[in-house]
Structures are given as structure tokens and as C-alpha cells.
Amino acid sequence: MADDLKERKPGGKATALIDGVLKEVKGLKDKALDDVQSLKKPQKTQLFKSIFRVTHDEKPRNRALGILSNVFLHLHPAKINRDAVAYNYTWGMGGITFYLFIVLTFTGVLLMFYYHPTKVQAFRDILYLEHDVPFGKLLRNMHRWAAHLMIITVWLHMFRVFLTGSYKKPREFNWMVGVILMLLTMLLSFTGYLLPDDQLGFWAVTVGTNMARATPLLGHEGPLGPEFGMTAFNDVRFALLGGSIVDSNALLRAYIWHCIAIPLIAGIFMAVHFWRVRKDGGISGPAPVMLESEIKEPRRF
Predict the structure, then answer these.
(1) Any idea what the Cα angle at residue 167 is, between residues 148 and 176, rounded to 5°?
(2) How many domains does one find in the chain?
(3) Whole-angstrom Cα distance, residue 122 to residue 108?
(4) In sequence order, what are the residues at sequence separation of 6 or more whose Cβ sits closer than 8 angstroms to the Cβ of residue 281?
(5) Against a cut of 0.70, is the pTM above it?
(6) Angle at which helices 248-256 and 172-194 pack, to 10 degrees?
């Protein structure tokens, strides 16, 4: 009885238990509030701060340092011209082209799981992919149509750059890099034609490689080709096909160029292209336009 009375007194075991529960509830409530705040402002969390080793005060200088000191965000400029990123000016073709390249890379890797670059298996693998693999036809069509769209967006991007004069000083070097990327994109599409090993791919590669015989210096039928010792067995056509006809060697070489060599070369040139966009002053844009609220009244004396 005395112990029961003692527990009922203020400061007894019951009160201590209630205080402990209240403290635990308060701790859970504070933790829930912290979680909500971290979702609203993830840049304020300790994890975010451990990634970006700068002061996180909301100041323009600190925000710029956070970008400049990060290897990923460093690809983007700390400041850009507001008018240069307007879609009615850039059309967004450069970004869309890069997005399509990522789609092609992802779908291409998945297609490699079901494809053998041999004359016996290549066309059978395409039929198996379209009729037996779940969502295989969708996967192949995503790769195919993304390739067509990438060709279109690359040309539109080049057209926009030419129309707006973005190839002029100081962007002449980056314009040449862009031309090389356009040619690599065309080569990617061309080498992918042969991989299904159907009639369309066979004759497309036959016509394309026959045209390569007339390449200056490198083709045995081109200007100065014979003078440099080019024959039908050592010129650029022979190198592309791995022989004199479109056969298994041509299929294997097209597969290697399409899946390994050209994507690696294009990736290097894309990195240089993006880097030079920033180093040359960012995206070229129209003359800066001031908002009405930014126009200052002329001083009157």
C-alpha cells in the first residue's frame, strides 16, 4: 500500500514513466519534422553537405562555388544568359539529341543480350526478338525510331546553329567538333543498317561501301587513290568490309564499329563539345533583353 501511494505522488515512478514517454514522442515528432524539412530542402541535409564541400549559405558566390567545385555540376556554367535558353531560340535540339543518344545506348545494350553477329544467327535473332522475347519488338522499335529521330535532331541543331550565327568567333572550333559529331551520328546509323542482316541492310551497305571506293586518297577509284597505291584489296572499302564482298566479316566489323568504336569516339567528342560550350561563353544567345522592372530611369540633371 505504501509503495502504491509513493507511485501516485508527483515525482514517482509513474510520473517518470510518463515523462519518458513524452520525451520519446517529442523526439519522434522532431525527427518527423526534420524528415519533412529534408524532403522540402534536400540541400540542407548533412548528406548533401558532405557531397558539396562548400559553405551552404544562400549567397550567389557560395552557390557558384558549389557548382564550380563539383565534378558533375562543373559541366554546367555557374551563370547563363536568360535569353539563350529560351526554347523559341535554341529549340532544345542539342539536349534532345543527347537524350536520344542515352536512349540508344540503353536500348542497344539490352539488344546485345539477344544478338549474335554471325550470318547464321543474326536474322534469326531479330525474328526471335520480335516474336518471342517479351517486349522485344517494342525494344527494337525504340532503338530504331530513336536512331531516326537522332538524325533529324542533329540536323535541326546544326541548322539552328547556322541560322543564329553561333558558329562564329569564338566558337569556330566547337562548330568543327559538332560537324564531326554529325558525321559520327550518320556512321552510327549506317553501321546499324547491316546488323539485322536482311535485304535492306545488305543492299544499303553494298551501295554505301561501293561509294567509298571513290573516296579521295583512300579509295582505289577516287582522286589520287591509285597514285597512293590504293587497290580493291587495300582501300577504305576493303577495310570497312574486311574483304571484297558483304559477308560475315562485314557483319562483324559493322557490329564492332556500331557497338564499341563509334560510340566511344562520339562520347569523347561530346564531352569536348559540352566543355567548349561553357568555355566559349555558354550557349550563344540573342542580345540580352532587359525586363521592364530592370530598366532604370535616366538621370536627369
Answers:
(1) 65
(2) 2
(3) 15
(4) 170
(5) yes
(6) 140
- Dist. CA 248–CA 254, nearest whole Å: 10
Q: What is the mean pLDDT of residues 231-250?
A: 91
Amino acid found at 249: N
Cβ distance 44 to 243 under 8 Å? no
Peptide bond between residue 286 and the one before it cis (omega within 30 degrees of 0) = no
Query: Of 38, 69, 40, which Cα lies nearest the Cα of 52?
Result: 69
Mean residue pLDDT of the chain comes to 85
Residue 54, pLDDT score: 61
CB 284 within 8 A of CB 166: yes
Burial of residue 57, with CB atoms counted within 10 A of its CB: 0-12 exposed, 13-18 middle, 19 or more buried:
exposed
34 and 154 housed in the same domain: no
- First and final C-alpha spacing in the chain: 95
CA distance 21 to 34: 20
Q: Give the span between the Cα atoms of 187 and 152, in whole angstroms.
A: 14
User: How many CB atoms lie under 10 A from the CB of residue 109?
Assistant: 10
In this predicted structure, the answer to whether residue 38 has a pLDDT above a threshold of 80 is: no
| Phi-psi domain of 281 (left: phi exceeds 0; alpha: psi -120 through 50; beta: other) | left
Range of the domain at 255: 88-279
All residues at 6 or more sequence positions from 137 whose CB lies less than 8 Å from its CB, including other chains:
129, 130, 131
Most distant pair of Cα atoms in the chain: their distance:
118
Separation of alpha carbons 11 and 22, rounded Å: 15
Is residue 3 domain-resident?
no
Mean pLDDT of 33-48: 73
For residues 115 and 264, membership in a common domain is answered with: yes
Q: Which pLDDT score is estimated for 5?
A: 45
Q: What is the pLDDT of residues 173-183, one digit of tens each?
A: 999 999 999 99
CA gap 79, 71 in Å, rounded: 16
